[in-house]
Design brief:
Layout: H1 2-28, E1 40-41, E2 44-53, E3 66-67, H2 70-73, E4 84-86, E5 94-97, E6 100-107, E7 113-116, E8 123-127, E9 132-134, E10 136-138, E11 148-158, E12 169-177, H3 190-195, E13 209-214, E14 222-230, E15 241-249, E16 254-255, E17 283-289, E18 293-298, E19 301-308, E20 326-334, E21 365-377
Parallel strand pairs: 4-9
Antiparallel strand pairs: 1-2, 2-21, 3-10, 5-6, 6-9, 6-21, 7-8, 10-20, 11-17, 11-21, 12-13, 12-20, 13-14, 14-15, 15-16, 17-18, 18-19
Length: 391
């Protein structure tokens, strides 16, 4: 009898351990059982899965994703002074392997790229100041969505061993409106308006931008989520742009302060030896976008006040973020104005010479994406092609 009781007790203990482990795996999002289309979202059962990418193959699914190539476009820096060229170089700047997509940023200072007179235009000359190559993949013209819960399980960049994050890296998961259906557009400045430079006309920021996750290698215990929008009935950007911008520290504290170009940062934003940060493991970064509000999510839980969409006066009278689709973007940038990193040849914070924020020995850097999923409410599906191709 005593032996039977001990065996039964051991069985109960083992069962409890197995249940606890299964729960932990499920919360971490690391289970091998993928949800099926139509499955409900765990935080709001009125939302059902309408699109997913689990990266189960060995190549990027080109029916779902476009890999951008700056050399073909002939434009660089992306408006932020970034130091990478995005290249469609599968196997080098990105690859799909072991159930995940990996974006890779390489130090490639010898590379030269064509500068064009306009996007996809004639080559003016070659440039040699984009010292890195990396990857950016989007669902533009393939899949776009109006409203929903957007999530991706991401491990932010480190070197191949997972030990060092290079200070200049700038990973991001974000959304932009489809150009063909974006209702608002304009020019960068009044000079472009007066000169009627049509090739400079853009839907950004007039039709908005949603930043689900951005992080700087300079502050790995902090990540940013927000939105960019135009604030005026005038049709140029300069002087008429604003941000909903909140930062979440790894300890859960939330601060709306913008540190984008601040050269002096709180030392607690960079992890100390043995201290966890947003590069230590995978997290699920997300947002819930409804007709009235955009709110951001971390590991399935909402955080921050969110952006109220009900007052058009905030957007210069425009009904921004209302009833038009956005597509998904994943990219790994290097340098630029985010957190005052800039380029490797720019003066660093010490102003004494080349930028001391760059340690080339930490490259290449690897950003891993386990999966990407979109959930929507059934009642919202309709003529705006929610959850379906916007082509």
């Amino acid at each position: 009898m005593l032996v039977r009781r001990r065996v039964a007790g051991m069985k109960r203990s083992l069962l409890m351990v197995a249940v606890a482990l299964a729960f932990a795996v499920r919360v971490a999002g690391a289970d091998n059982k993928f949800p099926a289309l139509g499955d409900v979202h765990h935080s709001d059962k009125s939302y059902r899965l309408v699109w997913q990418e689990e990266f189960t193959g060995t190549k990027l699914d080109r029916k779902k994703w476009v890999a951008e190539d700056d050399a073909k476009i002939g434009q660089y820096g992306h408006g932020n002074g970034e130091s990478q060229a995005y290249l469609d170089a599968e196997g080098n700047t990105f690859f799909v392997r072991d159930g995940k997509l990996t974006l890779v940023a390489h130090h490639a200072p010898e590379a030269k790229y064509p500068l064009r007179d306009k996007p996809y235009g004639k080559v003016k000359h070659n440039i040699d100041h984009q010292d890195f190559k990396s990857a950016k993949v989007t669902t533009a013209k393939l899949c776009s969505f109006t409203y929903g819960i957007f999530e991706a399980r991401i491990k932010n960049p480190t070197d191949a061993r997972g030990q060092h994050t290079a200070i200049p890296v700038w990973p991001a998961f974000w959304l932009l409106p489809e150009a063909k259906t974006a209702p608002f557009s304009g020019y960068w400045d009044k000079a472009a308006v007066d000169a009627k430079r049509e090739w400079t006309r853009s839907s950004w920021p007039y039709s908005g931008e949603i930043d689900i996750m951005e992080m700087s290698g300079r502050a790995t215990r902090l990540y940013h989520a927000g939105a960019v929008y135009h604030t005026s009935p005038r049709n140029w950007t300069v002087g008429h742009i604003n941000w909903y911008s909140h930062y979440r520290r790894y300890d859960g504290a939330i601060d709306p302060k913008q540190w984008i170009t601040d050269q002096k940062l709180d030392g607690s934003l960079q992890s100390a030896p043995g201290q966890k940060s947003y590069v230590s493991g995978y997290h699920i970064y997300g947002c819930k976008w409804t007709k009235d509000r955009i709110v951001f999510m971390l590991d399935g839980k909402e955080w921050g006040p969110g952006l109220d969409l009900t007052n058009p006066a905030k957007f210069g009278g425009k009904k921004m973020y209302r009833d038009y689709p956005f597509y998904l973007i994943l990219n790994l940038a290097v340098g630029g104005n985010y957190f005052g990193v800039w380029g490797p040849n720019a003066p660093g914070p010490d102003k004494k010479g080349k930028n001391e924020l760059y340690d080339f020995a930490h490259f290449p850097q690897h950003m891993h994406i386990d999966w990407v999923r979109v959930y929507q409410q059934k009642k919202l599906a309709g003529p705006k092609t929610e959850g379906r191709s916007s082509k």
